[in-house]
Every structure is written in C-alpha cells, then in structure tokens.
Amino acid sequence: MNYLIGDQFDSLFEEIFKINKWLIVPLGILLAPLIEEPIFRLHLDLKKSSIWWSMILSFLVMSTQWFLLVAFLVYMIFLLISVSQKEVVNLKFVVYTSAIFFGVVHLGNFSNFDFVSHFYWIPLLVGAQFFIGLMLSYIRLNHGIWYSILFHGVYNAILIIPSVYFYEP
After folding, report:
1. What does the alpha-carbon distance between residue 6 and residue 97 come to, in Å, rounded to a whole number?
2. Long-range pairs for 129-133: beta carbons < 8 A, 24 or more residues apart
3. What is the model's pTM?
C-alpha cells in the first residue's frame, strides 16, 4: 500500500508490531475470524437469533466507528423487522450489504483515516475485503459458519504470517 499511496495512512498493525510483532498472529488469525464472521455472516440465514447475535457482537468491532455501528444497527433492525413479519428478504441485498459493511469496517485498520478528505481512496482500501466478504458469504451459505471462520483464518494467515516474519521496524 505504501508504494501506491505513500505513508498517508498509519496502519494500526504497525502500532501493534512495535509492541510485539507476533501478537498480530493470534489476533488476526484466530480472534478476528471468530468475531467478524458471526457479525457479518451469521445473519445470512435470516433467523432472528442469528440477527440478534450479529447485532450484539457488532458492538465489539464497531464501537469506535459510531457512524458505521449506527448504520449497521439500522440494517440489522430492518432485517429483524422483515423476518419477524415473515416478509421475503432479498438474499442478494443481504449478502452485498454485509460485504460492504465488512469492507468498510476495515477502514478502522488505518488510524488516521479521514473519510471526508480521502473518500476517493475508499474503494482501493476496502475493495479486497469486499470481495473476500462475498466469498465468505458464499462459503457461509453453502457450507456453514464454521467453514467461513476457517477460511477467514486461513486467508488472514496467508497475509499475516509473511508480513510478521519479514517485518523490519
């Protein structure tokens, strides 16, 4: 990323690396998938209990991004009301919306990102997470939540382990 846009945005990973570079391994490979998958993909089955769990767990990840949390909660409440009233919910809408939220929440990885000043970088910064979100949604819907958690962890491991191993402050 630094080669494309320079060092405009400070990465939270760099701050963690300064403390202990190997700390990012369990956080990114184990903890992130265990928290993010239930938030962004558990509710894809459109069950009330899954929607509630996604809503509750969203406070863990998005509490520092209040505007995103509010938007996500509005989306979850919409789903909860629709499901409670036995309305047919468009699954494509749910999958794409979830993938968008998954991508945008990763802007939190950049500690000094200003949406207003740098809005044009958003597609580049979250595009990969959006597409991974779509893949994880497919895995979730066809194979279950545990397989999406496993795939998410493996994907993160492929990115994180070489980054940690070759990182030089």
Report:
1. 30
2. 129/102, 129/103, 130/99, 130/100, 130/102, 130/103, 131/99, 132/102, 133/40, 133/98, 133/99, 133/100, 133/102, 133/103
3. 0.84
Q: What is the DSSP letter of 167?
A: -
pLDDT in tens, 80-113: 999 999 999 999 999 999 999 999 888 777 666 6
Residue-wise pLDDT tens digits, 47-82: 999 999 999 999 888 777 788 899 999 999 999 999
Name which of 79, 71, 67, 73 is nearest 43 in CA terms.
79
Distance between CA atoms of residues 149 and 133, nearest Å: 12
CA dihedral over 100, 55, 71, 45, signed as positive or negative: positive
